Every structure is written in C-alpha cells, then in structure tokens.
Structure to design on (407 residues):
C-alpha cells in the first residue's frame, strides 16, 4: 500500500502463542498518530485484515496528514517533498544526501537585511505563502550568501540545489505557490576538474600538518584523552590527500578503501559512482585497477604499521572506524581553507592524472580516464593544461635508459 511518509511496523508474537500485529502511523517518530492496526493468528491473516481495511487506513492517513502535516512553512514543504513519489524515485545515495541537507537547512539562519534591527529568521520558519512575495528572493539570497561565507560556496550551492528541486516538485503538485530558489545563481562556478594541487600548495599543506602534529605531541599532555584522536585526525587529513593525489579516487571510494582492495602492486576496487551508473544502465559494474605509485606505497606502509592489525579500513577515524565521505572531504577541505588554499580533496583527481601521465607516458588517455572514471576529453584537457610534451618526452627517455641498463 502506497502511503508516502507513513510508517508501518510489525510484531510477530505467534511463537509465544500470541498474534501477528501490523501497526500504521501517519509518519515515523515519536508522537505520530496511529492510523491503523491489524492482527491475526498468522502473518497471512493479519495481512488479509490489513487489505480488508485498506480504505479505512487510507482515510485515516488522509485525515492525519491533513490536520497534522501542515504546509504552512518551508519546513513543512520540505517534509512533504521527502514523502513525495519524486523523492522516493531517487537512488539511495541521492536520498541520503538530500535528507542530510534538508535536516541541516531547517535550522539555517537568514540574516536580516543590512541596517535592519530585526532578528535573524530560520529558513524552515519562512511562511509558505511568502514564497510568492517579491521579498522571498532577497531572503533566500541572504541565506545563500551566509552559507557561502560560513560553509563555503560549494556547500551553499548544494543546499540551493536541494531547495530548488524540492520547490519545483511542490509547485508542480500545486502545494507551493512559487519557487524563488529557481532564480538563485550559483556562487561556486569554477570548473574544478581543471584544478590540481601544485607542488607549492601541497608543500604548504603537508608542512602545516607536520607542524600541527608536533604541536599537539609536545604541548598537549599525554594524559589528555583527546590527544591520540587529535593526532589521528591530522594524520588522516595528510594521508587522505596523499592517497587521492596518487590514485585518483573519489572521496566515497577513499573513505571505504580497505586492505582487501590494496594488492602488492595495485588498488583494485569497484568505483561506487560507476557502479550506480552501471546499475541504472542495466550493465555490469567495472573493476578499477590503479597501480600503486611510490608515494602511495609509503602511505600504505605507514598505515598498515599503525592500524592494519586493528582495522580493515586504510583511513581510520579517531573512533577506530571508517570516515564518512563527507567527513573525510571536510577534513582535508577544512585544513585547506585554514591555509587559504583554494583546493579540495576532489581536486586530487586531476593531480593524479598529471602524475600518472608524467610517470607512465605510454599509457593512453583512455586508459587513464578508466582509472579515474572520467571521460577521455576531461583527461585530455588536464594533460594539455598541466603536462608539457617535454615532460612526457623526458619520462620516456628515462624509461628507455632504464631498459638499456637492465639489458
């Protein structure tokens, strides 16, 4: 039975001589009104009772959602969007990310206009009727700009995209009067596929991490229970970036990187984004194989010695588990922001492309594209911009010299 946002629970007491129970509430969570309850001596009988009571259940759902699930504020609209069929069509990863953004957005503040003495508003408290007002775009613009200033342009755009999509769905359904988010321009417009971590930026980043580890080691008391976690966090920020620079992984693959995916000579894994694309297209997912470069090997050796016996994950959090992709990305991005380095963890992918082309010029751009799940055209662009023909030629000559020495 399709009741968007409703919550169905079951309890099987038949083994103890009891009944099989089915209970419906209008939504999940404490205080949600019950809209139906069914039981039977067996699961089959309980489900028969549920089907027989479908019309009453639907009526209870309608009444509860009409009276209790309001559409008076933007927070209410976001609830309705999460219960919509359009939201449920999204992939599991998309739903999880949008739900995360929506949870945070509800409490975002909208700064008052400059010079105003009015207090800041919560984004979720914006009246639905006010979305059609000419003031709405001003409210949302100040919200977007405040998010860009505090969380970064990319995070601000991610929130705007979710709000824009949610309102577009609800306008189409006749629930929202307008979609002022449709008029918000993006503030993060750089094509980051064309950015790499240049040597001087990487040096600045690594020197800062080294200095911070030394500072914690020498100034924080060994009896302080937070000391190990502080050092682990800094080491994770260092090694996460070094690995991406040397294997081109996305953050979701790096966060889940485990020792089974690290052979003596290669990273062997299934890229999660590529697997989702393959599933959508009805194709078999492809195994990604990336040779382990010397710098990556050094990181793996260090990590294995420190955590290999205790954890299956290569990058280990202070709690001993794996980082989430968002947490790992923010770990690196936060250090970069502190140093005023306009680079992200994701920019390591393009850096890897330049490194692998320089160190292994005999690899075709198509072969390199397969390693990083990019198009060959994207790889061409990075190589044309950052890898000179002379560098490739010198690497080839060095390889020929090594072959002659070996023979």
């Amino acid at each position: 039975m399709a009741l968007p946002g409703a919550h169905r629970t079951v309890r099987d007491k038949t083994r103890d001589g009891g009944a099989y129970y089915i209970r419906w509430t209008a939504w999940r969570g404490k205080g949600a009104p019950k809209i139906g309850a069914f039981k039977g001596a067996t699961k089959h009988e309980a489900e028969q009772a549920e089907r027989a009571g479908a019309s009453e259940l639907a009526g209870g759902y309608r009444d509860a959602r009409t009276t209790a699930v309001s559409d008076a504020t933007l927070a209410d609209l976001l609830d309705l969007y999460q219960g919509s069929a359009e939201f449920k069509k999204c992939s599991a990863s998309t739903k999880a990310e949008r739900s995360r953004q929506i949870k945070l957005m509800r409490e975002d503040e909208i700064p008052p206009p400059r010079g105003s003495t009015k207090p800041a508003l919560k984004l979720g408290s914006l009246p639905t009727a006010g979305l059609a007002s000419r003031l709405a775009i001003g409210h949302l613009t100040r919200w977007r700009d405040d998010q860009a200033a505090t969380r970064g342009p990319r995070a601000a755009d991610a929130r705007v995209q979710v709000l824009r999509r949610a309102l577009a769905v609800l306008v189409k359904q006749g629930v929202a009067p307008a979609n002022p988010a449709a008029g918000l321009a993006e503030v993060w417009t750089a094509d980051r596929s064309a950015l790499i971590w240049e040597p001087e930026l990487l040096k600045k980043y690594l020197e800062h991490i080294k200095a911070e580890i030394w500072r914690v080691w020498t100034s924080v008391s060994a009896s302080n229970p937070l000391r190990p976690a502080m050092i682990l966090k800094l080491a994770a920020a260092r090694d996460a970036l070094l690995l991406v620079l040397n294997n081109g992984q996305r953050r979701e693959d790096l966060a889940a990187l485990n020792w089974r995916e690290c052979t003596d000579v290669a990273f062997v894994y299934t890229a999660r984004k590529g697997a989702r694309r393959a599933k959508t297209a009805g194709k078999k997912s492809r195994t990604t194989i990336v040779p382990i470069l010397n710098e990556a090997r050094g990181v793996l050796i260090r990590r294995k010695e420190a955590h290999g016996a205790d954890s299956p994950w290569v990058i280990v959090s202070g709690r001993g588990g794996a980082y989430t992709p968002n947490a790992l990305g923010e770990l690196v991005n936060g250090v970069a922001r502190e140093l005023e380095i306009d680079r992200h963890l994701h920019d390591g992918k393009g850096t890897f492309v330049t490194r692998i082309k320089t160190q292994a010029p005999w690899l075709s751009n198509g072969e390199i594209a397969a390693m990083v799940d990019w198009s060959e055209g994207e790889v061409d662009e990075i190589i044309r911009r950052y890898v000179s023909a002379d560098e490739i030629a010198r690497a080839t000559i060095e390889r020929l010299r090594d072959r002659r020495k070996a023979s």
